[in-house]
Amino acid sequence: MLQHAPSNLNGFLARLNGRSVLSEDEQRAILDLPIRVKQVRQNQDFFSLGETLDHSCYVLEGLVGRFDQTAHGARQISALYIRGDMPGLESVVQPTAGFAMQALSTCTILEVPHPALRALIAANQAIAEAFWRDNAVDASILAQWVVNVGRREAKVRIAHLLCEMATRYCAEPDERGRLVFQLAMTQGQLADATGLTSVHVNRSLKAPRAIGTNFHSGTVRTDDWDMLAKLGDFDSVYLDTGPASEPRLRLIQ
Amino acid sequence: MLQHAPSNLNGFLARLNGRSVLSEDEQRAILDLPIRVKQVRQNQDFFSLGETLDHSCYVLEGLVGRFDQTAHGARQISALYIRGDMPGLESVVQPTAGFAMQALSTCTILEVPHPALRALIAANQAIAEAFWRDNAVDASILAQWVVNVGRREAKVRIAHLLCEMATRYCAEPDERGRLVFQLAMTQGQLADATGLTSVHVNRSLKAPRAIGTNFHSGTVRTDDWDMLAKLGDFDSVYLDTGPASEPRLRLIQ
DNA sequence: CGCATATTTGATAGATTTCAATTTATGTGG
DNA sequence: CCACATAAATTGAAATCTATCAAATATGCG
Predict the structure, then answer these.
(1) CA angle (A95 as vertex; A94, A99 as ends), nearest 5
(2) Can you say how many angstroms the Cα of residue A144 is from the centroid of all Cα atoms in its chain?
(3) N or C: which end of chain B has fewer CB within 10 A?
(4) Do A95 and B68 touch (CB under 8 A)?
(5) Hey, which residues does A96 pair with through a beta bridge?
(6) CA angle centred on A8, ends A7 and A13, rounded to 5°
């Protein structure tokens, strides 16, 4: 890893490095991006539907949800973003947001101005490529979200979502298969993410033959990760995380 | 528009031009991409889950579905592609496909080899940007798909899908609001796209208070487009089609 | 303590799936 | 043009899942 003056964008760089190959100069350029620090309180939108953005939003800390909604006001969370993610990176090429971004927990957001990102992309193709690839992974996640909501029953949807988030948080089960991690969502938000009702989420969690996982005040606990993953029909390949399964690409040498 | 020797990639260029600004040289470079013509019969996969791609697939003619599936074999169509679309463009930066691509009608596909695409991207940043933007629109469509499947009832889901496809096909209603267009899908495939059962799709289409639209052997007919759009909770902005609503961007001058 | 938010529970209505069977298209070879 | 095979559309009845509405119980926080 690159030695460099402390920057809050380290996590973003680590995310990119996991999937793309960047030179030292390129890495430094990313860390040198100008930022504005912004604290966002829980349940507060930090941008809204129809808004035109002039910056992208790096999540330094906290949990963020992308909220879409129907004309009748029903809400659907179509993506979750955690520390290290850059929601709205694509706003560089598509500035008008068709959705709202909301902090599910208190968040620290680093706003990266579009002009700086544009200059960086224009000056360095490898970085543009890494950004594009990052976006492509987000799209894969989105496609799996469609499958989850469209073709699985309630219990399985919930289990799958928990598995995905555990994996993205890099939470590892212990030797006995037990796993604990933080997921700062209410059952209502879980419902918005899975296309269910909060009542039904509650029941699925509590049912006699439930998912065998405890979800309480933002903490997920399971005694059997493998069982949860099986119930949740979960295969992590689409997240393109963990050890490199395919050689990292670099179009530009 | 650019004067140039005939190329089958004209539709792709037109698609890109609708959203990005490309110089004449850049446009010509796209039209000059090498292609392999491939005919794909109805219901035939032209690539499968887990396959590593060495080319992207331009749809010259026909209807294509992206099929994801659960471990139990339930199928979910998470995207549809029509003439002018380039499904798997992102395979340039992400070659391993986590899904299958299937021809819903007999298709003519132009395979564009990755090496040529890579060279083009490496040599021209504005094109890389246009590709990224094209992908970003696909991601917007995907997010709306999540909302559709997650938060709308059957009838509305179907109506919304029909509206989306009509809009993407640029099918215009006549002065009386009537609209007819081809959508080469069976009711079963419509079910796979909307997260429903073929039986239920059939009933929603036939119900006394149905969507007022006739869907038969690949032809969609409605007598009242506005009504369908309203029922389907449809707002086309996310498709970023039609007259430019925001100034087209170009990061690189 | 008292408000605000989140969780839990019950009862009921409604939507959707499942399974099974029938009818209607569509295509193909004789 | 008919007979056959196949795929698609349609219908019925019953089971199941999920939503809705309303109320009660926790939980956190100032």
Answers:
(1) 95
(2) 13
(3) C
(4) no
(5) A52
(6) 85
